[in-house]
Fold each of these.
Amino acid sequence: MTLLKKIFKQPDAMPSANTETSETTPVTPIIAPNESQMDNTVRNTSSSGDRKRQQTSDSTSPSKTKTWRREDFAVVPVEGKQRFHDFDLPDDVMHAIADLNFQYCSDIQAATLIESLEGRDIIGKAQTGTGKTAAFLISIITDLLDYPLEYKAAKGVPRALIIAPTRELALQIASDAEEMGKYADIGVVALVGGMDYDRQRKQLAARPVDILVATPGRLIDFVRSSDVDLGDVEVLVLDEADRMLSMGFIPDVRTIIRHTPRKGDRQTLLYSATFTDDVMSLARQWTVDAKVIEIAPEQKSTDSVEQLVYLVSRQDKYRLLRNFIKLNQLERVIVFGNRRDETRRLAERLQKDGFKAALMSGEITQQKRVKTLDDFRSGRINILVATDVAGRGIHVDGVSHVINYALPEDADDYVHRIGRTGRAGSTGTSISFATEDDSFLLPEIEEVAGVKMKCVYPDPNLLESN
């Protein structure tokens, strides 16, 4: 914590000890995304609520382009839409936003930035692909610039910590953080399992780390080895809390949080696709007077994705997949299976038939998974065969189709699968194969997805042998 933040904390709101699991601070729901009445328990840097930007105009950031001006990134005001210009963001952040051509905020961005930039704890609910990663990264980097350290930062002592359930998601967030902070001289390090431990240790030792993105298990390893000290974490982000629950990571997350400052001495941002009782219980334990921001519509599957189910026999599934991809000349598609062995055999079969396909599952080394994703983004491969765990963090633009080769056994996984397409305002298609083995799963999937899906038999030409 910086001296400035310590001055503005509320002592009577602080717990007497760092016992996160025993506290039940009530959660305050948000009334509207543009709510102007802010709670006085958050930090205020002046009576008018304006924050003093401790940032000089002659920044010495080696990557800063001094010729860029905010006026060069003109975005016309539109009624009902909020621009990033409407927030008091540093030029370094606005420059990165301009490079990404982010003009108008998504709903989750508009709602959370209002609160997070004021230092409030947040519990946010939003579908995948709605821009929540950019929302919390913009807030974090703005915070780091607004409140610079008054002393030389130590190595391995992050100011912001982001915890994600999967390696791919953690690496994607770290990549986005580097992109968003490229003009602000922000140090970003990702710690994930399956990658060289010593190499990650060297990254920590190379320079002070501002933003640390990690999966729970690998982070605990670094904390126990004293390579990472979480005692000065100012902002804690828990991304995909529902997924961390389902994957059994909550005991590890509890261990990690005990090493961070007490709630109230840190800002906590928790995001989840669903607000289950378990998620809300965790949120109350780890936040203070949090604003609940619910953006996800009642219909969980996005309207931008066309959803179709093919009723097919088990022995015809592969022919249907092969012919559908070939006849439709699909250029970027993700095919989901339920088990590693199933996806491995499927990827090998597609490769044998001349398709540029690759496997993405837990049995693949992390280095190879990173290369596979790069090849998928660049077009060197156009079919990614994935399991749910490996596919959860895949954020690749231009995926036209998601094909559920096997219906997911957990209906929530269906929503996350189809969220790989139809992202950022584009449209996509979800094709599901329902056989005599798994068609009984359809009613629950439809209930969770909030749609009645069209079920058809494939045309004969889709089942031809050649």
Amino acid sequence: MIRKGVKIAPAKGKLGVLIPGMGAVATTFIAGVEAIRKGLARPIGSLTQMGTIRLGKRTDNRVPKIGDFVPLAGLNDLTFGGWDIFPDNGYEIAAKAGVLDRSLLDAVRGELETLRPMKAVFNRRYVKKLDGPNVKRGRNKWELAQQVQDDIRQFQKRTGVDRTVMIWCGSTEIFMKPAAVHSSLPLFEKGLKKNDPGIPSSMVYAYAALSMGIPFANGAPNLTIDIEALRQLARKNDVPICGKDFKTGQTLMKTILAPGFKARMLGLNGWFSTNILGNRDGEVLDDPESFKTKEESKLGVLEHILQPSVYPELYGKIHHKVRINYYPPRGDNKEGWDNIDIFGWLGYPMQIKVDFLCRDSILAAPIVLDLVLFLDLAQRAGMRGIQEWLSFYFKSPMCAPELYPEHDLFIQLMKLKNTLRHLRGEDLITHLGLEYYD
């Protein structure tokens, strides 16, 4: 049977990548793309650049690279811009972040020095541990949103980009729950004009982007686009959105290990997680209100994977603790330490210890690249609203309000690849495999 794929507009011309929050993650991503363009490094960790996808039966031997299978923008077509509360250029920011070796930074210094952050929308009410001089002024949040849109138009005109994507790489804001101002687009727009405290800086950026038909991804655990008002705006303007919170270190390990325990019906008594982190993110999360936002993002993973209501004997009484410790000497080289208390046959206890000495921005950079390219693909394929197939990249994936999020990394990957197969008219793969034994 021949299936018909989805009509996808070609990836012609330049793709503008706009980033609120030009810190360690953003500059590691941009410097990496520039280095890869020059043949100085490889895009390790990027599914769009290195991953393959199986098509048809295993015996067909059709396993193209994802980048050859779906029409993605090329790395040479990416053009960067962004906002930050500090006025340093991209090279200065990357050097201070200390993620990449100076020799690599010097090889792309010219490209990074041309990257100068625009003045940011920022209010210390929402990120209490940071402050900087490169900040916009306006009578209200509506006016600030208009200023962001002016920035976008000027960027598009200056660079000549044909399409634009926005991805939040800024800091974690204080914990917020959906409120009345978030319940509809008209109420949200009134809230912008009235400076409603329920609208943090990240929502101003998201509103500005979605109003202009620009896809938006949320890389932090902030509420941001996970509200009805902005979901309505995304659907109204036929814009894809996704989030939230890049899945990098410790939570990545949880979404790999927890499905394995559940698959083997091994019980879990407790999971204690602590992080040592010294970069700007660590400083921000030293504030209890910002930590609460991150904690909620991290804690939900095990519950959704292990389903304690379905398996009460195995997972009904889990003691799950998460801690984040700001330790400046560690810099961007985060350490995630886990103590896992499991039990097996006849209830006999066992322990697993994980010490993940990871590099936060090194793990996040390829996620940013993949999300930029996949969101642009979704836009050209006419996909709008929440892109649940991109849950693979997030700690706290967005989904329809009536659904629970899927956290199992392997189910997420199957969903992502089947979405790509669907777009190109290929058969979806279930891994049933009975046809080989008929």
